[in-house]
User: Fold these one by one.
Assistant:
Number 1:
Amino acid sequence: MLAFAFCCLLLPTPQAPTDVLATYELGGKPAQVTRTDVAVEMAFHLRRQDLGQKALDVLIDSHLTRKAAQQQGQLPTDAEVRKFWQDLQAELRAAGQRPEQFDAVRNTSEAELLEFLGLQLAQERLVRAELGLKATDKVSGDLLRLWLQEQRKQAKLVLDPDALPAGVAVAIDDTRVPMVDFGLLLLRTSTDAERDRFVQQVVYLAALEALARERGCEPTAAQLEAAIAKLAEDARAEPRYRGLPLEKLLEAQGYTLVSLQRSRVFRAKVALDLLAQQLHPDATLRAEVAADPAGAAARAGARRRLGVIFVRALDPPNALIPRSFQAAEAHLLQVLERLAKQPFAEVARIETEDPGSKPQGGDFGWHHRASERLPELVLDAGFRQANGEVSKPLRGPDGVYLVKVLDVEPEPDEATLLQRLRTRHAQELQAQILRDAKLRFPEARPARTAK
């Protein structure tokens, strides 16, 4: 019961359109981000992902439960739901948990929460009635799931987004559930960080689309098709994908070519590229290279694929970081000896203490000299060494590194260099758009006290 009540998402009901989550500036004028704005963005962005699929299951189950309870007169009274909520809170507190700290409780009004819990009670009543159980008999989670499976078999469901009208999340019998309701369901159990990420996405997309309109860079159907063709070409050239067509790669993420072309995020990416082409044409980029050849090469020239073995160190060491810098350096000198006999990836999977690269055998991928994703001492070693060479132990602020050059890219031709520079400018424009929007969040609201 507890797991079902608080690990699931809440049933959506209409939200007040004035519920403002943030403010910003759009074209020099004040603008707002509402719960509805964020809900719609979450719905379209997450609809095809695992989280969205789970939320959609809860949406369907809630609809089927309400319909059956109304038909059979099994909806509980308000007083019964409140009593159930009080008992549930007491159980949680007895287990050392605070109900008001659950995302589902903090992000939901009391009325919405009670409606969801009422459906939980209704579902138990429906199962008891069907099995001829007493009102005091416990209903297991397995029985609840079996009942829902039977309800689904009897319902006519349309789940494929490409088979539904725009703006519809799912069709259940004769009911079409709007995407905004689906998004509100997702929003109610999102963490503060997840919510704020989508607030920022709403602001960025609105600001980018306004700039694209102003500068005549809204992507046409032909430009979107060309961008998809370029994605397909890049996918074929990527060794990791082993020649899989773009359609298959998209399918693994729950997308189709049609849904990709309709995606607001994808359209924004194409618009950003068009803006970068307009603001930074080839002639401007050539002048940039001529003015600072070394800087251009560092930002967009030949890349190097770097492998890193990292060992944490601290002076003095403690229980969490047991090695001093001297001990870490001595250990990595021993590792160097092993690297003369064993493959780098094999040793790195054992020795490196960087969790992100450990599964990849210390492989940090391709980097330009001016990369911001690796410490300067790692980049310096990686771009001074020959291909295949391993550095001596390098002391950093929080540990010691071994750096190996795994591969070296040939110098790019002019067209590739200019495109890479343009891509960097596009990334800078993306950051500038957000800065200019002056996004502001209201003061954090206190957690709602459970009643």
Note: The chain has three domains: 2-193, 195-293+414-437, 302-408.
Number 2:
Amino acid sequence: MNKEIEIFKDIVTELLADEKVNPVIKPIDPTTLFNSLDLSLTAEGTKQQDFIQALKEVVLASPRTTTHRFFNQLFGGRNATATLGDLLATVLNNTMHTYKVAGPMVGIEKVMAKKLCDLIGYGPASEGTIGAGGSMTNFMGILMARDSFNEKIKTEGVHQTMIAYTSKESHYSVSKNATFIGIGRNNVRYIESTETGIMDVEDLEKQIQKDIDAGLSPFFVNGTAGTTVLGAFDPLDKIGEIAKKYNLWFHVDGAYCGSVLFSEKYKHLVKGCEKADSFTLNAHKMLGTPVSCSFIMVKDKKHLFSSFSNDASYLYQMDNDEYNPGKISFQCGRRNDGLKMWALWKSIGDKGLEKIVDHQFDLADIARDYIKNNPNYTYYSFDESIGVCFNYKNISPELLTSELYKSGKLMVGFGKFKTETFVRLVTINYGNKKQDILDFFSILEDFADNDLAKN
């Protein structure tokens, strides 16, 4: 193991040095990938030096999601303390299905889940667990909703036309998960959004009533805290009232921006979240831990046990079920994704996490001010969002973002809302500073006015 640690240190040292010089690298065309790198697998294995060289080349050729020029996805940056926790979790190699094999790591998850439940406003019956990403934890939410609506489904299958509701701007996992739980994608109602990208609650209630009148079975409504394109927050308070009125399970997809719970300044954006039956939050997004670390919290833990507990005498041989996380998880063998978040949280506390969240909004304000004060830009966003959407000089956003990527200048994507398409800048990397945002615009403008103009 000592030898491998030295190899790791050497490769990481070289990567960190190269990132300073090349924060973005030119991508390898997928059609030439297998000719560009030695990815082959052989019967006899590879000589040590060849193996190290191949490993180093793969690492150095991989997209750089932690640097100051990565604005492409809803994650980014590298927190050293959280990374330390992740490395230790890998070395320990615990699996999180029983206390017998996870020990104190179970306590770590329970402490964090309790704190998150308290931030939401849940009572003593609440509980939480960790899943393999936001799509997974959103799946757990809609599955519990299904089982809560009709517990016989677990044994007899779906025999009703069950209807789920979500905004047109919500995450695509809602549609996927409708397939997985057996209700069918065609039974997801996509509710209209307002001009700022939030769910139109009047349209929601009209659609629910229409389905009831048609003899269908509404059972679930999804509210989004941070839509993937505009970063908008659905009116959770109003959605919660409608869900209660029609006896629907209310789930909040806060994978992207649910972490505003930590901010005194911005937690009003999730006002009413305590009305939700379940709430998803990704620590690998706004809180900056390594991918992945996704929590789901429920108002009443009985639903976790009801939907996910299954007897297995070869696993659950001792300890109270409250300390066997496999009883409330979709997974059995599950990586210890909690240690990295606990390490960060333990080191900087609630106040430190609040600063991380607030700083991302500050960076977005810097970007908004720059765009609004430059006549060459068209602005499509709104205040209190860490997604800043714009176009530059009417240049095709698809073309601009793809050519910036191919050239190794910047990694940023585009988004679509209603009839508009635009560049989508996300300021989720809290390691960035004001100058990094200004540099982003400088690089984009220089590339658009010079390199792109020549082609």
Note: The chain has 15 helices and twelve strands.
